[in-house]
């Protein structure tokens, strides 16, 4: 009934075509459009040409091929989601009305010992298996197709670029993550309607069970509409998008001590985990001393996020990390596991602060590039003209844009650029027209303030380690592949020092798995931030023209009007939320190919067991035994069975160029969705 309701929404061709034209201007700020269309060998997600794909949908819309708004929105959403980039996202008007899911259907992937090939079970059966039951049966088929292949297909639209990480999104092995949050579910991941109203599970013992897909209505709507037209007018007829989420950047003028949260606002410690030795009030960072045999000299630092949201949390995150690590060494712990399972990233400075706890007193390396295009050039030219004018007024939007030459520093944290044109280029790198390389931030200028401590000088302050507390070979980073954004930056820095990684779970195949399977871009940018920068540049340009001293030439002014994004509030169809990846990340060894497109296997790959479902600390024992004990790995760069030479069995080196976006049939998302869901 809900799907039928959505199908009655009208479709206005002119608005749809204009929407694509205007969104395409924002999409130009996506950092990797060219290489995403033609990725290098080793990239495991599909190639996708977003610009050609949008134009194909535009052509179909102009022909009048779409019969309703939901059909159109679904095709655009599927295209954007196919980039598998957690920073690239939006929500279109008709996609926010209903969510279609089988919420009570939790599936787990279980290996008997962490090394043998896992099988799929319902979570109830897996718990029985963990308790010693012998009469349970694995799931063999879902809607007549192999169960594992169905889950792989279900997860393919997700925001992770690695198929093993995607698979971990589909299963519920990490039932409670390190922040105490309930884990994921394959049959609630993709909330769009895919033409499937139920899932038939067939088990290896020939029994079966059916699960219904249910439509849940968004709580932001009072559903009293009597027709598809009424629904369309209420949801898609509004010209103003919803207000963007408030910035998570705290005010630097606030005292960290003054804004620390009281004990009354704390979050309970994550259930299913052991009692922590130390934890931040909201489980942003948690320290454990495992008591299992063989782990007597091992400490565990759980870091489920790098996303503190207040100045107090930023301060506490860094200081508590050093406090725990320092105490662990005093208490005789000689090894440490940094548990990053399900870490979705956060603030770059928090990631760098944690890195500086383990490796203090050194220059923090980071290397990024933005994609060069006309709109970025115009904004950068105008902002730098204003900043370089003694009479100009410097706006906070300019400071946060990353485009002011006096705020840009090279990866060595010392060298700078003399002009905007010298920085902008464009320079062709990895097939992408790009800016020159730049550090993420001037970390040396931010060394160890009380509000945002990072130990780059070893001179004391909030973080005061002068030497590394653990040898690199005694540090292990534990992930489930769902490590994104700042998590990837932190992990890359740690690996560069010789730290090893263990990746858990993934598809039921032998061989290596990537420790970082999420977006590796260094900066997510909200569409609202681009909006602010574009409108500020437009206003400044108009003022300069009115004053008789135009910043741009007449030819450039005409081009400016063609390429500059219009305000989101003026969009022909509402765009409630949205963002993209603004900067690509690079390593010291390769400043041409973004890390997003470089295959990097973990040191060791292990599978989850039945015991890990309700006792995630079992993963620590598995990782420790495989790294420092007598345990073995399924694969990995430190494993005979998972050496890079055997990666062809796990799809490394393959690219899928079959993603043809030259033509689009309206409603093709439904046929594709049916195939994937089945």
Automatic annotation (TrEMBL):
Compositionally skewed regions (Polar residues) per UniProt: 641-652
Domain CPAF-like PDZ positions: 103-221
Region (Disordered): 240-276, 641-668
All residue ranges annotated as the Tail specific protease domain in the record: 298-494
Alphabetized InterPro entries for the sequence: ClpP/crotonase-like_dom_sf (IPR029045), PDZ_CPAF-rel (IPR056186), S41A_metabolite_peptidase (IPR052766), Tail-specific_protease (IPR005151)
GO biological process, one term: proteolysis
Amino acid composition bias (Low complexity), ranges on this chain: 250-276, 653-668
Family matches, as Pfam families: PDZ_CPAF_rel, Peptidase_S41
GO molecular function, one term: serine-type peptidase activity
Protein name according to UniProt: Tail specific protease domain-containing protein
């Amino acid at each position: 009934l809900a799907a039928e309701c959505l199908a009655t929404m009208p479709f206005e061709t002119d608005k749809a075509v204009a929407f694509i034209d205007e969104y395409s201007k924002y999409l130009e700020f996506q950092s990797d459009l060219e290489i995403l269309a033609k990725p290098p060998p080793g990239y495991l997600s599909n190639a996708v040409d977003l610009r050609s794909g949008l134009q194909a949908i535009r052509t179909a819309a102009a022909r009048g091929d779409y019969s309703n708004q939901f059909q159109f929105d679904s095709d655009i959403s599927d295209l954007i989601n196919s980039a598998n980039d957690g920073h690239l996202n939006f929500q279109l008007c008709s996609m926010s009305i209903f969510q279609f899911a089988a919420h009570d259907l939790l599936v787990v992937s279980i290996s008997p010992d962490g090394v043998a090939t896992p099988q799929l079970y319902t979570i109830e059966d897996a718990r029985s298996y963990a308790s010693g039951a012998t009469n349970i049966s694995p799931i063999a088929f879902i809607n007549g197709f192999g169960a594992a292949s169905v889950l792989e297909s279900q997860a393919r639209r997700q925001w992770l670029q690695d198929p093993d990480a995607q698979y971990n999104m589909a299963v519920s092995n990490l039932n409670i993550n390190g922040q105490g949050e309930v884990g994921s579910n394959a049959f609630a991941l993709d909330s769009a309607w895919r033409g499937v109203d139920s899932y038939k599970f067939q088990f290896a013992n020939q029994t079966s069970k059916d699960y219904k897909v249910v439509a849940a209505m968004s709580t932001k709507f009072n559903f009293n509409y009597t027709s598809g037209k009424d629904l369309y007018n209420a949801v898609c007829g509004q010209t103003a998008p919803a207000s963007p989420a408030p910035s998570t950047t705290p005010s630097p003028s606030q005292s960290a001590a003054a804004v620390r949260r009281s004990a009354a606002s704390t979050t309970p410690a994550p259930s299913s985990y052991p009692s922590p030795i130390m934890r931040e009030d909201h489980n942003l960072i948690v320290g454990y001393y495992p008591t299992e045999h063989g782990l007597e000299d091992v400490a565990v630092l759980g870091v489920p996020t790098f996303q503190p949201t207040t100045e107090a949390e930023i301060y506490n995150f860094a200081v508590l990390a050093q406090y725990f690590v320092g105490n662990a060494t005093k208490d005789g712990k000689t090894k440490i596991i940094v548990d990053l399972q399900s870490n979705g990233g956060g603030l770059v400075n928090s990631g760098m602060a944690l890195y500086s706890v383990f490796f203090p007193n050194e220059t923090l390396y980071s290397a990024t590039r933005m994609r060069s295009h006309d709109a970025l050039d115009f904004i950068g030219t105008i902002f730098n003209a204003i900043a370089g004018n003694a009479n100009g007024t410097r706006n906070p939007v300019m400071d946060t844009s990353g485009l002011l030459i006096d705020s840009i520093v090279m990866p060595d944290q010392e060298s700078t650029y003399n002009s905007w044109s010298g920085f902008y280029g464009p320079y062709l790198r990895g097939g992408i027209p790009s800016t020159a390389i730049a550090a993420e931030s001037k970390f040396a200028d931010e060394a160890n303030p009380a509000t945002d401590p990072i130990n780059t000088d070893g001179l004391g302050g909030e973080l005061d380690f002068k030497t590394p507390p653990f040898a690199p070979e005694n540090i292990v980073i534990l992930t489930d592949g769902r490590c994104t954004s700042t998590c990837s930056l932190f992990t890359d820095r740690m690996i560069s020092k010789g730290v090893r990684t263990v990746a858990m779970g993934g598809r039921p195949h032998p061989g290596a798995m990537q420790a970082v399977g999420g977006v590796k871009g260094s900066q997510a940018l909200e569409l609202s931030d681009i909006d602010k920068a574009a409108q500020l540049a437009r206003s400044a340009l108009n003022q300069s023209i009115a004053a008789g001293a135009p910043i741009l030439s007449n030819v450039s002014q005409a081009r400016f009007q063609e390429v500059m994004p219009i305000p989101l509030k003026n969009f022909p169809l509402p765009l409630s939320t949205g963002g993209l990846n603004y900067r690509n990340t690079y390593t010291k060894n390769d400043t041409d190919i973004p890390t997003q497109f470089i295959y990097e296997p973990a040191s060791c790959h292990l599978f989850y067991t039945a015991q890990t479902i309700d006792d995630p600390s079992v993963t620590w024992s598995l990782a420790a035994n495989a790294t420092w004990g007598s345990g073995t790995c399924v694969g990995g760069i430190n494993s005979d069975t998972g050496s890079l030479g055997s990666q062809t069995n796990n799809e490394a080196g393959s690219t899928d160029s079959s993603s043809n976006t030259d033509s689009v049939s309206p409603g093709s998302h439904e046929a594709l969705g049916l195939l994937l869901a089945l």
